[in-house]
Amino acid sequence: MQIIGLAGWSGSGKTTLLTRVIPRLLARGKRVSTLKHAHHAFDIDRPGKDSFEHRSAGATEVLVVSANRWALMHELRGAPEPGLRDMLDRLSDVDLVLIEGFKRQKFPKLEIYRAENGKPLLHPDDDWIVAVATDAPLPQSKVQVVDLNDIDKIADLLLVEAMPVADLDAQAETV
């Protein structure tokens, strides 16, 4: 299993790019999963649903299963937030995991940059950003620049620059 991240400011188009590049990767025969870190409280459940009531009553985990999908909700109940490696270990084995978030971790990332956001580039301060996908010219860039709308080239780049999960362990040992 290999990993690569998408990094960028809010509103840069990370999710839009993911929804455009995943079908291209699938068309190439790749099995793809995503892992997203949320910086805020989130809930995939809602009041009135049985699973919500189970969690509200104190269940640590609630597993919901149907003929189409399953979802495991795990309440931390004050325990520390799990790290990237712990979450990767919970995923089924696939060819590529696209990670949104965990931007301080040491693994390859594609920066998504839109000049209209008025935010600074991230790659000058992150040696793990391997390229920038943008809708603006960036002649000052120290890394490869790709057109944000060239989805095939972005798919190529993600596959070439992805890192084996085992290498994440090696990076953690050097910290």
Written description of the protein model:
This protein has 175 residues and is α/β, with parallel strands linked by helices. The chain contains 5 helices and 9 strands. It has one domain: Rossmann fold (3-Layer(aba) Sandwich). Strands 1, 2, 5, 6, 7, 8 and 9 form a 7-stranded mixed beta sheet that branches. The two termini are 22 Å apart. A hairpin with a 4-residue loop joins β3 and β4.
Features:
Rossmann fold, 9 strands, 175 residues, 5 helices, alpha/beta, single chain, globular
Mean pLDDT: 92
β-strand amount: 15-25%
Number of helices: 5
SS elements, strand count: 9
User: Which topology does CATH recognise?
Assistant: Rossmann fold
**CATH architectural grouping:** 3-Layer(aba) Sandwich
First and last CA, distance: 22 Å
**What's the SSE pattern?**
EHEHEEHEEEEHEH
User: Could you describe the largest sheet, including whether it forms a barrel?
Assistant: 7 strands, mixed
How many independent structural domains? 1
Outline of the structure:
By secondary structure, the chain is of the alpha/beta class. Helix content is 27%, strand content 25%. The chain contains five helices and nine strands.
Give the secondary structure arrangement, pairings included.
Elements: E1 2-7, H1 14-27, E2 32-36, H2 50-56, E3 61-65, E4 70-74, H3 84-90, E5 96-100, E6 109-113, E7 129-134, E8 144-147, H4 151-161, E9 163-164, H5 165-173
Helix pairs in contact: 1-4
